[in-house]
Amino acid sequence: MRSEIGLIGLGVMGQGLAVNMAIHGHRVSVFNPTPELFDEFMRGRAALYPSIEGAADIRQLVDSLECPRRIMLMIKSGPPVDSVISELVDFLSPGDIIIDAGNSHFKDTIRRTRELAARGLLYLGIGISGGEEGALHGPSIMAGGSEAAWRSVENILSDIAAKAGGTVQCSGYLGPDGSGHFAKMVHNGIEYASMQLVAETYHMMRCFLRMNPEEISDVFRIWNTRRLQSYLIEITSSILAHSDGSTGKPIVDMIKDAAQQKGTGMWSVFAALELGVPVPTIAAAVEARNMSALKEQRERASGILAGPGLSSPVSVAEASRKGQMIEEIEDALYASLVCAYAQGFALLCAASIAYGWNLDSGQIASLWTGGCIIRAAFLNQIREAFDRNRGLCNLLLDEFFAGEVASCQDGWRSTVAAAANGGLPAPAMASALSYYDSYRLQVLPANLIQAQRDYFGAHTYKRIDADGAFHTHWPTGRERPVG
User: Fold this and answer.
1) By residue range, what is the domain housing residue 25?
2) Catalytic residue at 184?
3) What is the pTM of this model?
4) Is the domain of 171 the same as that of 212?
5) How far are the Cα atoms of 23, 294, 296, 417 from residue 291, in angstroms, in the given order?
6) Are residues 304 and 356 in the same domain?
7) Which residue of 336, 340, 368, 452 has the fewest C-beta atoms within 10 A of its own C-beta?
């Protein structure tokens, strides 16, 4: 009997997805360009599942599949995807389906969709989030591309996807060409921001309140039972409770403070710049990772650059003030996270219009309630906000979230001020607060910027009391309409 689907790429995610499919009763053929990894998988995990069939090469993989052939790629984004597609198309027939389930750039997916359609082939670009655990037990799946292709593989992908609360389906078709990969890119941008915000929160408790990792773990554990309930809060509590086996010290203290990245957060920032959407908290998170990578420079600078020395704003004896500050930090983290998600969904909204995708923000929020890295309890409220108002352009304009953030303001502002006064960097949290303040103000100082632009470059400006564009000859002060 032929396989229902083929899978190329047996890294951690590819192996997990193949086993997940087999567990759900689907027949899958697999191939990996590296023979050693292929052999290890086939002799190990795959040997437990008769419905997983190995293929010696791409042609054998294609020949093992029922028609229309459905082939999923779980390989490194960029040129490797184009290379495999180039080899595949020689063996495929019109109506066959290629599914790119890696972290491809959405513009590459748009291009590939168009190129393969010209050959009669269907293409899906799907974002998959959940890491190793999600791939095996149920990821979040965001599909874009050919709707006919989605209908052909929907049963398989729905079977293997997460079910939030046991019932909410965390897989779905979002729209044409690159929409699925764009949604995954934005997911990762929010992920970057969320991780940085959690790290800044940890840093404040560690440096200001002199709390050890185990104590902070307990705080995160409590927070995970309330409005901050989320996967990242959960795993942070777990991480901070772990000790290093060789030294007995907290494992977090033994990890070098230089964060790596694969580029999807940066892609989100680039896309936002192209579309004119402010995403300062996502950008701050990317830049914070860049700063962390300058470890040697930071070590030198620590002995040269002056600062307040990370002084604690409360003494150890002030237990009541310590408890109050933890509550303020909780407010600051929650409000900042809402702003990070608001920025991500604003970016999705702008892309939907620019690329004609007609994205359903409520649907995307629902897909993120299970399986993915940024799953959080308040995504249910986000879904409800967009269900109430399909035309909602920014989450902060929803009555519920406007009230939630307003209730956090005092603690949020106190926390950001304490960080600045105490010499502790909080770039993501401060940017979130600045984003909120910028968005809520009716008048910003951009009028002066427009005057400056007109002064040195005759770029013109608009008046608040008249239509059209104007230019001032600044040495004389004479103003005239332009155009």
Assistant:
1) 5-177
2) yes
3) 0.95
4) no
5) 43, 5, 11, 21
6) yes
7) 452
Q: Using N-to-C axis directions, what is the helix angle for 106-117 and 79-88, rounded to 10°?
A: 20
Number of domains in the chain: 3
Residue 317: pLDDT over 50? no
Instruction: Indicate if 160 and 195 belong to the same structural domain.
Output: no
Does the structure show a pLDDT above 70 at 374? yes
pLDDT at 181 over 60: yes
* Catalytic annotation, pick one of 184, 287, 330, 404: 184
The number of helix segments (H) and strand segments (E) in the chain equals 19, 13
Same domain flag for 88 and 201: no
Asked whether residue 377 falls in the same domain as residue 271, the answer is yes
What is the pLDDT averaged over residues 254-277?
A: 95
Q: What is the pLDDT of residue 368?
A: 98
76 a catalytic residue: no
Cα distance between residue 31 and residue 34, in whole Å = 9
Structure tokens at 48: 């437990």
Rounded CA-CA distance 70/2 in Å is 12
Q: Which residues contact 60 (CB under 8 A, 6 or more apart)?
A: 31
Write the pLDDT tens digit of every residue in 405-430. 999 999 999 999 999 999 999 999 99
Average pLDDT over residues 339-345: 98
**Active-site hit among 4, 40, 132, 191:** 191
Characterise 68 by phi-psi region: left (phi > 0), alpha (psi -120 to 50), beta (else): beta
